[in-house]
Fold these 2 entries.
Entry 1:
Amino acid sequence: MAVKRRAGGVALPSFAKVNLGLEVLGTRADGYHELRTLFQTVALHDDVLLEPHPREVSVRCAHPGVPLDGRNLACRAAEGLRRWAGIRQGVTITLVKRIPVAGGLGGGSSNAAAVLMALDRLWRLGLGPSGLHPHARRLGADVPYFLMGGTALGLGRGDEVYPLRRQVRAQVVLAFPGPAVSTAAVFARLDRSLTPREDSHTIFRFISNDSEGASTYSALTNELEEAALQEAPDLADRVKAIRGILIREGAQLALLSGSGSSYFGVFGDAARARRAHRAVRSAGFGAVRSRTLTFDQYRTIWWRSFATLSRARGWVQGREGHHGDHGRQGHPRR
Ligand code: C5P
């Protein structure tokens, strides 16, 4: 979709993630599940275009699978932040989707985090990642991760995020066997067989092992994979075929991402990744070749984007009204 930018419009990348490992330890009192997960940003991204509007917050997107009403996370992110900061100005959000929708790659959550980070700058709220965290976690369990990016540990619902000293640098092949799978349905199915436990070891082993190489990924699993394949039985054969190709072509790790249905392979070198990508496509599956982004790379890309945001015209300078009763979550700097 060609996007025409109007005065004051800014464009930002919004990256996808994969889960290099995901362990489900049990259910929580709030109905969510206690997780240990390894988040990893990949270079595949959507574009998020923001244009100032005198009053309204709205979202546009040509992709038929993206809701354009109050269910849209990017729209809710802008509405929530605007209400909290007491800003009357609106924003028109245009999403150019490349990340598959509902594919376990965090596209919607990433779009919402990009909107939060950009509006924090454009409206000069001065919240930064820690001030935006409560806004992000209200939107969804994966949203806080995208305030940080890179290789990170996710605890709790996945919304307590810690960047890791060990940042993965690797080639990634993402395969899209479709159809979309409902995250809530996958977790509900998992509950039938879940044995709660206190701790997990494979992810902690990965964190404490500093050396690169195939063996460091070997113990990592995605504990949602079995439930996702039971939830979408059509997927099982396709996933088996894709996994077979990725492993045969030398993937160091091949897993379902999140609750699926995207499946990915991690490769140590570009030649193998290229061959695997070609093989997955020749077998009739949609696929893209990408690479990981480290915490520093993610931050640098954002800092560059911030420089363009600070030059954008037509945006209000700071808050116009009151916070209501949300003051405890951090105050916009004046
Ligand atoms: O937070 P988010 O809306 O992305 O989560 C989607 C669904 O996934 C939740 O409604 C919940 O059913 C399930 N979920 C969970 N435990 C988590 C994260 C998500 O049960 N830690």
Entry 2:
Amino acid sequence: MSSKLILPGATLGVMGGGQLGRMFVQAAQEMGYFTAVLDPDVTSPAGLVAHYHIEAGYLDEQGLAQLMQRSDAITTEFENVPAGALVTLGAHRPVAPTADAVAVCQDRAKEKLQFRRCGVPCAPYALIDTPERLAAVPDELLPGILKTARLGYDGKGQARVADRAALAAAWDALGRVPCVLERQLPLALELSVVVARSAAGELVRLPVQQNLHRDGILAVTQVPAPDASPALQQQAADAAATLAEAMHYVGVLCVEFFVLADDVPGLSGRLVANEMAPRPHNSGHWSIDGADVSQFELQVRTLANLPLVAPRRHSAAVMLNLLGDLWFRDGERETTPPWPQVLALPGVHLHLYGKASARRGRKMGHLTVTAADPEAARATALQAAALLGLPAF
Ligand code: ATP
Ligand code: MG
């Protein structure tokens, strides 16, 4: 990654046109950059708002050439972008994060080795890529969660398995692709940390986030984290910084953590790394409304080699994810959720990603409630949740 300063007026490119790309594009545009998005989907959320949308697959040579032609520097919003494409782009343009860093984060086996190298504990696991390895799985890993090594997201490509028979059946069902089996851990809570690191090695971060998942999908993020001690938060922040430094990471990186409810044999301490995302993360969306520098502005700054300043949280924030299910509360017929009622509540910031059709489990948007103190943010978020038919938290 070069440390070339890229000033507003230049064009920033992004691989992937999902909601993360859209919010990156919006942050870049606010600062006076032009933007280019490569995504095969004509109606991609980021493609709809970027100055240039290159409708091509991630490995399409012509598409990549066009993206390079348009862009002064290129980032990614999607960890499943083939690392090979980033290598091609990186030969001609500054690319952050680099193909190497993305390759680690897009493979659970490599990611776990990285955790180990950095002395960051992670769930006990085994790699399963042959029938022999399947047979050799130690009993301690059951009950466990079988996860495809690559291409999983939002709980997809995962199966909870209680015993060996279920494990064998689940591996078959996942097409016998390389997987990791993780022991199912007793979770007290989940945290994440978003850090940004510049080519010059400056590192800043957002405050530690507390996350609630439902069915393997992020549902709620609260900042400040209500149930994590300052010591635990510091430990998570330090681990995230260590990982970013070790990878010579440039860009925005999110590290997800588990906090264990009980001691687990073989694990020291209660903080365990789950996974990393080489990009802004759903749990950092609150920073658009609750901090003076958002995770997307951090992505712009690292890519353009602008100075990094530590984001300051100016409000307490609760983020609620808005999944497609909210559009089907009345059964099969698609109906718009009650936005006017929700927007009548104080401190509600609605973000919809411009996706044409709602589907169950699809991330359609999020809303962030900001307030002067965490109790008020939570109380309003609970009211919003009730209006939307979401469970309390
Ligand atoms: P993302 O959308 O964050 O990329 P993902 O599909 O990659 O999600 P994970 O983060 O691996 O999935 O898991 C999703 C959720 O499932 C976790 O946040 C946690 O709630 C639960 N989970 C995953 N692994 C374990 C484990 N080993 N023990 C207990 N719970 C787990
Ligand atoms: Mg996750």
